[in-house]
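User: Can you help me understand a structure? I only have the sequence.
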Amino acid sequence: MGLWLEIGSSKFLILFIINSLLILLATVFTSYQITCIFIDKNINKNIQELSNKQKEKRMLKEIRRYMNSGPGSFKMSLIEKVELNLIDKSNIKNYIPFANFYLLIACSVIIFIASFKIVYKITLFVPSAIILCSLMALTPVFILDIMTKYNSEKVRRKLAGFVSVLNRWCAVKEDIFYAFEKSVESGIGEPLRTYIRDMIIQVNRGVEPLEAISMLEMKVDNPQFKDFIVNIKQNVKHRGDIRKLLSNMEEQFYKIEEEYNRRKISTYKDRIIIYFIMALVLIVGYAFLNINPQVKHFYLTTNIGKLLLMFFCVLYAIGFYLTVGITKFDV
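Assistant: Let's start by predicting it. Here is the structure, written out as tokens:
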């Protein structure tokens, strides 16, 4: 009898322990879920507030930049030019919201410092290492430049479809800004979606419609897009037939895009090829130094060789600048 009591009490104790553990786990899990819900709400709220502040600051910067670039006003500063031509036109803020001129400089400085020791071990001459590392430090600039060209080409390819979307919304309500606002939700894609959304926000916050359209024009380096903006501005100014204008532009842009496709024109791909070839020059130069011990000894140990190497580095930097400058022409 005593044995059965002991067995029963042992079973009860085991069940009690298991039950207690289950209650503990359930309590911990419930607490964790409740905490996560509140934390997620607070995080999302903070992120939204931060995003709104960033948008507000960006809008103010764009308005000031536009005012500084207008007729009879002061020229844009270097920082404003860099942020317009690289940060805004590349649409990098869609992926890195806090991207700005100072972050770009910080990345360049880090690349310069990280690459200097390696390059100096190869060249054994400080001036040559500084020139080559300065070019390497411009890697973020080259990446943003490629993104700018890509966005320009992407806008050109989507321009006819975008005008078609505007035309359909104008059929609902003959108001171009209503069409712009509705087009944001119509799958027009990046970077147009970001650019149009920013313009709508500016108009809703009291910016003159023509000025908001002009700020939109500054964000895209593409002649077809500029023609589109000029026509829209004239239509808004003189209150013309917006549907007829959009229909004509839609047909025109489709024909232009067909011609681009037929001729296989792509400034974006050309820019990538140029950067690749210029980088290949460094690899070939490095191989040339190491292929012959006498050549390596001359360029890395003698004074004349070091000066010649520095001279070649200067020529390479100048050639890089001129080559990239030539490809600034848009077609």
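Now, to help you interpret it: Residues 152-263 form one domain. The first helix runs from residue 2 to 69. Let me know which part you'd like to focus on.
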